[in-house]
Amino acid sequence: MMGSVLVAGSANLDYVVRAERIPGPGETVLGRDFRTFPGGKGANQAVAAARAGAAPTRMLLALGDDALAVPVEASLRAAGVELDIRRQHAHATGVAFICLSDGAENAITVAPGANTALVADDLPDLAGVDTLLLQLETPLDAVAAWAARAREAGVRVALNAAPARALPEALLRNVDVLIVNEGELAMIDGQAGDLIGALQRLPVPVAVVTLGAAGCIAREGTQLHLQPAFPVAAVDTTAAGDTFCGVLVAALAQGEALPAAMRAAAAASALACTALGAQSSVPAHADVETLLLGHTDAAGLDALAASCGWRAA
């Protein structure tokens, strides 16, 4: 299990309605297609890590004792994720209600259900684990305890700080790799200022900020890395961020340098936007490799640097 990834986090069943646009407050919009997809940030990231290639992937999750759990569990197992399930009889399996617009934007409401029942003691043995990947759709006290336990065991801790919320310093001190979008970065930093300034203020060794269609930027110690996005015709961005996190962490667990891990994650994230659903849109490793081989980053690098306010020395 050397180079293995353990994901501790949420698993949901997503209820997805496609519509011309996302309704505003108090507005009703007629939708078209309705489908269900296995989802949840933790489960999506576990599927992405497992499909990324060589990193064995395990997941700690909580599911209800109900029919909703069946497709969620089946999707994870089909992707090759080894499961540590905490079955909950007093809570239903988590669900998410997603409105997906024709412009590939979405609005999401989550009813976490069984995910709220995970506690600090649920974390399985960490022997042989290279990286523990966490998110914030499970109780914050449990996430903080898992990070502390991993730090004590010498396991790298990666945190996708989503959904956005302020984080206690004690948790951040135990994080090795922080992955956020711009909104989540602003919530954690709590200061007005430029993107690079916020990155530099984060009290973590490595911080990666995803910038949607522009790409991503990372600070590793004092060094900055920029990775432009791979242009695609997007139809659903629901799991793009989760795909990025899972692939990035899997690459790091297998010993890839951060720039190479960012490039693979950006490619996988782009491909995830070209298919419907969460886990159903996570691309296979071979498809990511094909995209990487056929693409150069030069075209988007200057635009990304300008949008970040970065100037080469």
Automatic annotation (TrEMBL):
Gene3D superfamilies per the UniProt record, alphabetical: 3.40.1190.20
Active-site residues (renumbered): 242 (proton acceptor)
Location relative to the cell: Cytoplasm
Keywords for this protein: ATP-binding, Carbohydrate metabolism, Cytoplasm, Kinase, Magnesium, Metal-binding, Nucleotide-binding, Potassium, Transferase
Physiological role: Catalyzes the phosphorylation of ribose at O-5 in a reaction requiring ATP and magnesium. The resulting D-ribose-5-phosphate can then be used either for sythesis of nucleotides, histidine, and tryptophan, or as a component of the pentose phosphate pathway.
Binding site for ATP: 181, 210-215, 241-242
Domain Carbohydrate kinase PfkB span(s) in chain numbering: 3-284
Pathway named in the protein's UniProt entry: Carbohydrate metabolism; D-ribose degradation; D-ribose 5-phosphate from beta-D-ribopyranose: step 2/2
Protein name: Ribokinase
Family the entry assigns: Belongs to the carbohydrate kinase PfkB family. Ribokinase subfamily.
Cofactor comment: Requires a divalent cation, most likely magnesium in vivo, as an electrophilic catalyst to aid phosphoryl group transfer. It is the chelate of the metal and the nucleotide that is the actual substrate.
UniProt: substrate binding residues: 12-14, 40-44, 137, 242
EC number from the UniProt entry: 2.7.1.15
Quaternary structure and partners: Homodimer.
GO molecular function: ATP binding; metal ion binding; ribokinase activity
PANTHER family in UniProt: RIBOKINASE, SUGAR KINASE
Xref: Pfam families: PfkB
Organism whose genome encodes this protein: Luteimonas chenhongjianii
BP-aspect Gene Ontology terms: D-ribose catabolic process
GO annotation, cellular component aspect: cytosol
Keyword ATP-binding found: yes
